[in-house]
Amino acid sequence: MGQIQVQKNVGGIEGLCIIEPAVHGDNRGYFMETYNQNDMHEAGLDMVFVQDNQSMSVKGVLRGLHFQKQYAQGKLVRVIKGAVFDVAVDLREGSETFGKWYGVELTAENHKQFYIPEGFAHGFLVLSDTAEFCYKCTDFYHPGDEGGLAWNDPKIGIKWPELVGEYRGSASADGYRMADGTPLNMSEKDQKWMGI
User: Fold this and answer.
1) Is position 135 annotated as part of the catalytic site?
2) Which of 34, 57, 106, 136 could form a disulfide with 79 if both were Cys (CB 3.0 to 4.6 A apart)?
3) What is the predicted pLDDT for the residue at 96?
4) What residues contact residue 66 under an 8 Å CB cut-off, 6+ apart?
């Protein structure tokens, strides 16, 4: 027991949590528990996960901002290789923090995990040459249930690190690049989402 530390309501947004596992290392490497239901329950987190996903992306890829319309998913996300800037936006109707965002850098070295409950839009920007991203979900993937939100909506005002460019009235990646010149790389679908 006690293998994780949970920081709740990060950024003043109810439900968002940063989770840091205890890492046991020596000259051979390290070991950590990435998930322990008892520890989560002790921390007041009683979600049940039904699906694990993993993706790999290259530098400059921005995925998001995504949400589910009918079958909302809570997500426990982490990076096992590289670094990303991970973002959640509160879309819960009636929430005091509706439209507010919070972001955290997740890396293979810091071992941080980010829990995003149901009712949030989620996305991330890859900061390293490549990044491998893992996440547990509280509901299954349902084709056709995905909604989205413009990653650069000025009403939300996400401050993406290392990203240079100027908002031109849409979610298009045109004109944006990383500080080192790497172009912003997004799916066609993610460049068509509207603002809040």
Assistant:
1) yes
2) 106
3) 97
4) 121, 122, 123, 146, 147, 148, 149
